[in-house]
Amino acid sequence: MDDAIRSALDQMPEKSRSKLEPHADIIRELRRKGRTYEEIAQFFAERLNLKVAPSTIHAFVRVRARRRQRTRIELSSSLEYASPGTSETEVVTRRIAELKRRRPPDAENQPRFEYDEN
Hints:
By secondary structure, the protein is mostly helical. It has helices at about 5-10, 25-30, 35-45, 55-80, 90-100.
């Protein structure tokens, strides 16, 4: 890539996907203090001169909570099986072996459907 283009790209700031992104810490702190989304919206209007609907704040918080939970699940499942120096192939092979070793549930304990015509 041309050096002039590379320097122009490096100088360009990253675009934020949400106008609330720069204020994520404020929202998190206000929620931690028990403030409602309506109160947070009023706070933004009064203090930051930022008009935002409470539902927008709620959606913003919900999306980030989902991302955080997904990341936590992915990390915990990969750390559970992986040890230092373990490749992904070894982790997958170990998971498959564990699934194959599981015993099927007892057929006697499962309810069976019986049809009685009378």
